[in-house]
């Protein structure tokens, strides 16, 4: 990260904090209605009418600086020539490729690992038969009874 990019990032963060503070200092649109009926809310740090001009101008200037610093940071990130993101870079880019002498030869007569031996279709795995007293099989199941027996 260059010095200019670091300074721009610091300016961006300070502008964001100041912008939040100036927005929170401003009065809402209905705040002056209470002052008209005698609540006394119009007495503020900048006076009854001066606060709107000072705060609104400062907020608009800070918003413009924030917008421009956002554009500058985006430009720096887009034109960066260093390392790409982790997703684009990949994990295996840093691993050296194995030499031909390090790769073991497949045994003679063995099928390649990428294709199954039975014409392109892998056989379905066989299910192991559960023992008669297994908790998954109910007592007196069809596996251990004759077709005419009625379970008791």
Structural class: mainly alpha
Tell how many strands the DSSP assignment holds: 0
General shape: flat
Radius of gyration: 38 Å
Mean pLDDT: 74
Q: Give start-end ranges of low-pLDDT stretches.
A: none
H/I helix tally: 4
Fraction in beta strands: under 5%
User: What separation lies between the terminal Cα atoms?
Assistant: 80 Å
Largest sheet: none
User: What percent of the residues sit in helical stretches (DSSP H or I)?
Assistant: 40-55%
Indicate the multimeric state. Answer: single chain
N-to-C order of helices and strands: HHHH
List keywords for this structure.
4 helices; mainly alpha; 152 residues
What does this structure look like?
- With 152 residues, the chain is mostly helical.
- It has a domain at 51-81.
- The chain is built from 4 helices and no strands.
- The protein has helices spanning 3-25, 31-36, 50-78, 86-89.
- Helix 1 runs antiparallel to helix 3.
- The longest helix has 29 residues, at 50-78.
- The radius of gyration is 38 Å and the shape is flat.
- The mean pLDDT is 74.
């Amino acid at each position: 990260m260059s010095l200019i990019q670091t300074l721009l990032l610091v300016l961006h963060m300070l502008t964001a904090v100041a912008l939040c503070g100036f927005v929170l200092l401003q009065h809402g649109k209905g705040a002056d209605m209470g002052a008209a009926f005698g609540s006394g809310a119009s007495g503020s740090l900048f006076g009854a009418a001066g606060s709107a001009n000072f705060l609104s101008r400062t907020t608009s200037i800070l918003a413009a600086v924030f917008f421009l610093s956002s554009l500058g940071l985006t430009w720096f990130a887009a034109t960066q020539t260093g390392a790409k993101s982790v997703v684009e870079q990949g994990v295996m880019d840093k691993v050296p490729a194995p030499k031909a002498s390090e790769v073991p030869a497949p045994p003679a007569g063995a099928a390649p690992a990428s294709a199954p031996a039975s014409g392109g279709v892998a056989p379905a795995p066989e299910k192991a038969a559960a023992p008669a007293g297994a908790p998954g099989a109910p007592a007196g199941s069809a596996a251990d009874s004759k077709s005419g027996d009625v379970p008791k």
